[in-house]
Amino acid sequence: MENIKHIFFDLDNTLWDYRRNAKITLVKLYEEFQIKDTYGYSFEEFYPHYYESNEQLWADYRDGKLTKEQLRARRFPEAFANMGIPTADFAMEYEQRFVDEVTTSNYVVEGTEEILKYLHGKYQLHILSNGFEEVTHQKINGCLIKDYMETITTAEEAGAPKPDAKAFLTAIGKSDARIENSVYIGDDWIADMVGAHRLGMQAIFFNPLNENHMWVEEIPVIHKLTELKNHL
User: Fold this and answer.
1) What is the pLDDT of residues 89-98, one digit of tens each?
2) pLDDT tens per residue across span 184-195
């Protein structure tokens, strides 16, 4: 890619390993709340319901169908209800504990440190995340990512989630970058690739799970972060 000076990264599951960090916290809370002992459902039975609910709610948030407050109010009640606990009166306490504690685990995606060291000094590096403001900063400040980023922008700060152009333009304006000298890297095709491409911004799709997606000739696809060395 030519003339690139600024690289904007998504955070969750692009650099910060949300899936791994969340699962560690969920296991801990599941045991603390004695859910298996009380209701008979193992964590292995619960996790797919949580994962499905969480993914759908974040997609709805991305698409403007619900608010931050609605996402948090529905995530665990729906997961427990779908598993077979329709009146989980502990679900909102579980939600608050999860939000408070998920950032105590700070694993990064494989290859993060190597690729940030490689890119640092060659480009200015930034975060643009759909994550919520306070938690996003806690995630970054708790791990090695903080040492490499020039700016951090959240959808909450911008007033709109990706793929809305407002999110990208807020991040670009904050960094003194320009669309034509920037590239966006992320793992959500709609939020990250569609959002950047619609704005005329170059993009690279990080697809470690080999998820189905549209194919756009101008958008390279990588499956490991270290493959960015082939493009940048």
Assistant:
1) 999 999 999 9
2) 999 999 999 999
Cβ proximity of 190 and 211 under 8 Å: no
Mean pLDDT of the chain: 95
**Angle, alpha carbons 138-190-25 (nearest 5°):** 35
pTM above 0.85, yes or no: yes
* pLDDT score of 1 more than 90: no
Please, are residues 150 and 176 in contact by the beta-carbon 8 Å criterion? Answer: no
pLDDT (mean) for 163-170: 97
Q: What percent of the chain has pLDDT over 70?
A: 100
- 142 CB-near residues (< 8 Å, 6+ apart): 103, 104, 106
Q: CA-based Rg of the chain, rounded to a whole angstrom?
A: 18
Q: Within 10 A of 3 (CB to CB), how many other CB atoms are there?
A: 10
Give residues with Cβ within 8 angstroms of 39, minimum separation 6. Answer: 84, 85
Q: How far apart are CA 140 and CA 99, in angstroms?
A: 15
Cα angle 59-140-19, degrees, rounded to a multiple of 5: 45
